[in-house]
Structure formats: structure tokens, C-alpha cells
Amino acid sequence: MEKWEVVEGNLASPQGFRGAATAARIKKTPGELDLALLVSDAAAATAAGVFTTNRVAAAPVVVSRENLAESRGRCRALVVNSGNANACTGRQGLHTARESTRAVAKLLNLAPAEVLVASTGVIGVPLHLGLVTSRLPDLVAGLSVENASAVARAIMTTDTFPKVCVLRSEAGVKPVYLAGIAKGSGMIHPHLATMLSFLTTDALVGPRTLQSLLRAATDVSFNCITVDGDTSTNDTVLAWASGVAGVAVRPGNASWAWFLEGLTQLCQSLAKMIARDGEGATKLIAVEVEGAGKPSDAERVARAIANSPLVKTAVAGSDPNWGRILCAAGYSGAVFDPNKVDIRVNNLLLCRDGVDAGFEEAAARKELAGKEVVLRLDLHQGSATAHIWTCDLTHGYITINASYRT
Fold first, then answer.
1. Distance CA 4, CA 319 (A)
2. Is 342:349 a contact under the CB 8 Å cutoff?
3. Which of 34, 179, 339, 370 sees the fewest Cβ atoms within 10 Å?
4. Torsion sign, CA atoms 195, 190, 290, 4
């Protein structure tokens, strides 16, 4: 089995999928895509999902969880809208989500439990069912491999670009594809973030196996990003396997590691796109912690630094204020000796053994001025590591979020 390589394509590049998108007037801007449909034509398709840990879960999250459980991972369609989160909308919201799946199921001759639903947008505003159901016949009629390209744009809210990644690998003489799209720009914080991501493959993967693989890939990708420390009500990652390529993925053999490598690469690529596109962001920041006494300490330090407004604004201004980084590590709750910590920006040493390393200010500012910045900490306490992707914090974040609802 060969390595996975990035190729051109869309969510329907894996065999057995079709998609379509339309403008349903859910968003305020007339003509803007805001409703999409994804369908697997393979009767044996499997599905898996990972959802928000927020106790305030949106109606589509509740319904998709129910349908995945009822169908035992045999879902074949997704209806998704942007512009309205259908969250904090009570019984009416649940009714809208369930009726949306029923309407799709009727048009596609499926059981309602075989249809998943997702939403993103403004919280607390009822989603008008008629806006969804009135456009479903057109979406079904427009389903195709080519039209699936529009799905990535239809799920955007404050995103500045559609987030798409397609991978290809050879398994013997057979090509296998992995594809994914995502949306997310603000209200981003594990676990998960205010994000949607939909993944497809034409490999043959059982529902339990797909669920295990998805959770493993999510843990080192979507659960390793943060923009602003807010965990959303709608976070959803869904994966489908059509099986059309005929290449089976099974636990305990080489196919498992091969497929997980590709799925992880796919999810990490999409996760970094989300962090890079943080609301108002100008820089992607990777926080890398090594030398921790245990994994939980490494993770605590990385998350504290990545979520620190003082660190993020310092990076925005290319200010090598390493004291803010060490301070965030100190309040993270991790156990370490501050007098042993080394801090680098990219490969430039700013702090050695907890004190100033005597760096040149101009050189440090130059390192921080790039579009991608790596903050590296070595705690010198052990061998545990962690990584988090985030972005800088600028005035743009306030501008976007001060008027998001109105």
C-alpha cells in the first residue's frame, strides 16, 4: 500500500458519492449558497460521527446522534444548512431537524434513520422548515459528482475560503480516495470546535471500525485546534465509507495503519485550514510542547498558551514577549520546574532555563512576522509531547463578532 498524496477533487471524488448545493434564503445575503445534500449511492455504505461535548447541543446534533445509533452506522445521506444553527430552539428545532431527515428520506427512498442532519450559523433563532423542504427536490435533481464541489461553499459562515482536501493512495492495483470538507472560523475550541467536517472514502470499512478510526484521527486533529476558547453547540464530524473501491480496512493488519495514516493526514490538513482562517487572523500558530513529565501536562501547557489572548496578540504584533508564554504555562495546572524551561519561536531561542536567552530583538520580530509561526517549549521534565494549532488575535475578531447576529 502506497503513501497518501494530495490530489484535486471534491467530496465526491471517492466512488459512490454525489452532492449538490443551493441558495435557500436561510442566509441574509440573497443568492448565497446555504443548503446542501450529500448522498452515498452504495447500499452498504457505513457512517460514523463525533460531536460536540457542550451540554447545550443543537437539534441537528441530537437527531444525528439518534439516527447513527438507530441505523447502527448505516446512514447514506446528509442534509446540511448554514446561516442558522438550529440551536437553543426547543421542541420546534427538534421537529425541524427530524422533518428535514424525513423529507430527504422520502425523496431518496430511504429510512429516516439513514439520513443525518447538520446546521451552522446563528444560535437561538428558529430555522424555518419550509426553507429547507421546498428546495430538497431541486437538490435531489441536481445530485452529481461535479456539483458536490459546491457543498464546501454552502456550509461556510464567516469562513473566508472553502476548506477542501482530497487524498489518493494505491492499494495493490486499486486506487482509494479520501476526501473532506470543513467549515470553521470562530467559536473554535476542542472538544470539538464550532465546526463542521464531512469526510468520504470509497474504502470498505465497517461501522465500528470507521467510528474507531474517526475518533483516533479527530483526537490528533480537530481536537488540537483553538481560535478563541469557545466550544460550540453544533460541532460535528461525520464520515462515510461507500466500499465501492473494494479495498477492505480491518483492525489488526496493515490496512488499519495505512488508512488511519491517510485519515489523520486528511483531518489535520482540514484542522489547520480552520485555525489559519480564524476570524480576523493573519497568522497560523503551532504550539509544540516537549519534555513534559506526562501527556496531560504537555496538553495543559499547549492549550493554555494557545488560548492566551496575551500570547495571541503578541504574535499578532510580532512582539517576542516570551514572558507571556511562560506565564500561560505556569497557570495551566501542569507540573514542571520554571527554571528548566526553554522557549523558541521557530528555531530562535528566546528563553533558556526560565530566563532571557539574550536574543536579538530584530531577529525575533522577523521570525514572528511570517504567516506561520511555531512556538516551541521544552519543559525538560520527561518525554511527553503535545501540539495545538491556533491563530493570532487581531481587531478583526472583534469587528466580525460584534455584528455577527445583526
1. 38
2. yes
3. 339
4. negative
Query: Do residues 196 and 184 lie in contact, with contact meaning Cβ atoms separated by under 8 Å?
Result: yes
* DSSP state, residue 57: -
Enter the C-alpha cell of residue 292.
Answer: 513534559
Between CA 121 and CA 79 the distance in angstroms is 15
pTM of the model: 0.86
Number of Cβ atoms within 10 Å of the Cβ of 275: 25
Residue ranges and CATH numbers for the domains of the chain are 5-276 (3.60.70.12), 284-402 (3.10.20.340)
Active site residues: 194
**CA nearest 206: which of 249, 262, 267?**
249
Q: Quote the cell numbers at residue 245.
A: 473501491
pLDDT in tens, 199-232: 999 999 999 999 999 999 999 999 888 765 545 5
Q: Quick check: 279 pLDDT over 60?
A: yes
Q: Return the C-alpha cell found at 22.
A: 443551493
What secondary structure letter does DSSP report for 142?
Answer: T
Strand segments, DSSP code E, in 172-261 are 174-183, 196-201, 204-205, 236-241, 248-249
Cα distances from 41 to residues 10, 51, 87, 162, 244, in angstroms, run 16, 25, 30, 25, 9
